[in-house]
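Here is one record:
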Amino acid sequence: MSFSIAGKTAIVTGAANGVGLAIGRHFVQMGANVVFADMDEKTLTHEMGEDADKEENVRIFAGDLRKKLTIANLLSATVEAFERVDILVNASRQVMETDPLDPDDNSVEELLQQNALTALRVSQAVARKMIKQADGDFSSPIGSIVNLSSIAARRTHPNLLAYSVSSAALDQMTRSLAVSLAPNGIRVNAVAFGSVMSASLKGSLKDHEELRDAIVESTPLHRIASPGEVSDAVQYLASDASAFVTGQIITVDGGRTLIDPAAVSAH
């Protein structure tokens, strides 16, 4: 099977920065049509450039995907530009610290909404479109959905309660959707990564320089991953090379979960 995604149309959410942006750019380089979606219009436009929509295989879409109407508009914009959708990458994710003993702390609700429920709603809408465009022919794979998760789903860090819970929910959602959509030829998988030099981690390292040494020390490969290393794993799951892979959570963490102490932040 080929790792090629050339000619396929992909929607990448959370594409204004960090891992989502890296995945979108990687997909463009691999010849895919890509819709970069994010609620941060200013950053999205800055990163992609004012003339991004004039490129043949690139479109940008700004909007709050927590709203169902925005999801519908995203699909409409994608189909108008490229006629179909073959790949969805749910890369929109937020990290937020939690006070586990504060009854007024709403971080669990907020991150479940942002990191899990929004991905579910976008996946449902895209899956319906994939099924419709297959026109009843499910003899071969018709689409791939890839969720971005975290090793925080399997590790305990009290101050990341909300992030851990939302990541675990996303993993289970991945498995459940994989079973539900398998008869329709749609595969659903996730990439759970450890410390990647994303925008959020850069911010953390800027304020807490000692964190870098702690992360490296807790990672058998003794370094922090680049966003591009996650992009390669996502491409595999989006391509026909993984045609018999569904419901899997692929870990990209440099061996972190093999020895990870609870005290080191997993994001």
In short: The beta strands are 9-13, 33-38, 58-62, 87-90, 143-150, 186-193, 249-252. The CA atoms of residues 6 and 32 lie 5 Å apart. The two ends are 32 Å apart (CA to CA).
